[in-house]
Amino acid sequence: MELLLWRHAEAADTAPDMLRELTTKGLQQAEIMGKWLRPRLPKGSLILVSPATRTQQTAEALKLDFITRRDIGPGADAKAILKAAGWPDADGTVVIVGHQPSLGEAASMALTGKAQYLSVKKGSVWWISSRISEGVTQANLRAVIPPNLIKVPK
Predict the structure, then answer these.
(1) Rounded CA Rg of the chain
(2) Chain-centre distance for alpha carbon 123
(3) What angle is formed at CA 43 by the lines to CA 25 and CA 5, rounded to 5 degrees?
(4) Alpha-carbon distance 127 to 136, whole Å?
(5) 10 Å Cβ neighbour count for 143?
(6) What is the pTM of this model?
(7) What is the band of 61 on the pLDDT scale with cuts at 50, 70, 90?
(8) For residue 154, what pLDDT is reported?
(9) 154 within domain boundaries
(10) In 3D, which of 152, 132, 87, 104 has the Cα closest to residue 7?
(11) Which of 2, 30, 127, 151 could form a disulfide with 143 if both were Cys (CB 3.0 to 4.6 A apart)?
């Protein structure tokens, strides 16, 4: 299984939490990450997105179909995030577009079995894979990448 945890890009603080929109910088962050991710995601990848406006706008930058899930919205716990993804046993690739601290705690739980705080910067992706080796499920951190480290051709 491939699990990508994508934190929403930078959002304005001028509206109620669920209605916060991406800033100009946030729209750029989402576009950069969307362009980077799109060719790397296999066909049939499952993309699950929080219902918050800022996560919806972030996911739209992928230009792929996605499913909105309330159970991964603001305040979701790490177990809910991983359950929605089917971690670690689902087949294929699952992208979760969500929030802090939920995504950091889900990354920690996927990697160590314990939900501890890890910082997932705005617009960043944590890419974690699982595999079975000698009868044991192993988690592998494949990448942690913020949008400011990506160079996308114009």
Answers:
(1) 15
(2) 9
(3) 45
(4) 20
(5) 12
(6) 0.96
(7) very high
(8) 64
(9) no
(10) 104
(11) 127
